[in-house]
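Incident review: delayed structure delivery

Summary: a single-chain prediction request sat in the queue longer than the usual turnaround. Root cause was a stuck worker, restarted by the on-call engineer. No data loss occurred. The affected request and its eventual output are reproduced below so the record is complete for anyone auditing the incident later.

Affected input:
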Amino acid sequence: MPNSPAPTKTPVGTATASNVATRFVDSGNRRLAYRRIGHGKPVLLCTRFRGTMDVWDPAFLDALADEGFEVITFDYAGLGQSTGERTLDPAQLAIDARDLMEALDLRDVAIGGWSLGGMVAQIVLARYPQRISHAVLIGTTPPGPNVKPAEQLFYDTAVIPEYGLKEETILFFEPRSAASRAAAELSVARIAARQGDHSPPVPADWAAENLGSTPRSPLFPADAILEALKHTRIPVLHVGGDHDIIFPVENWYALNQALPTLQLVSFPQSGHGPHHQYPEAAAAHIATFLRHTPLS
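Output delivered after worker restart:
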């Protein structure tokens, strides 16, 4: 597999995550909204719970594009700017990702996902591997039983109708760390910098109904997906924080010898959104993985 081009700094006037226009493509009985920046090997990113294209930190997306990749984000059907029937079932959301790849004729794709989107990416890898070269999972959970449970704090915070800096810090960073709190403030400001062309937020009450109110195990009850991960030749990278209150990284380390292509990166003093706390470093790790890890 050819290496991706070396990273280059984004030229002045080039579309960035903060100013790129939303595009649309018709697929089946709905219209999917998406954005794309950069050039090179496509990296298709599936968003988190209560997420749209607007919840990604632009510093992370731009850093990944600067590494020499085409970075594509999108809204799930029926959410954000996409039309169709809405759901938070990862298997149905995986169909959105598949259909978008087909509609845009994307090949040799690195499928990525954060949180809920990481479950979606794993299903895409297992069920629709023909276009997939790599999987990049961020702050998510593997399928099957958990060795470490989620914390009640996530369930109590994730259902608050509007996230402010306090909620963003609890959910995606490490409140006990001054450095992480400072990173949260910077990340929230970067996300807020986009002017116009916003995706409507996911309805909070509907999302809360889909979440549940207490931790459970497994968080991702998908035995067939776990079995596929145990036999895949597609390289898998998980990027996590050392204190993720919903998807503890310990659940990935418990599968270290069971998943033959799995690589793990864990950032210190960080939580559920390590790529927002360490946007450039996370992008560099991902870029190295994509360039130098072939099919096993």
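Verification: The domain at 23-292 is CATH 3.40.50.1820 (Rossmann fold).
Action items: add queue-age alerting; document worker restart procedure.
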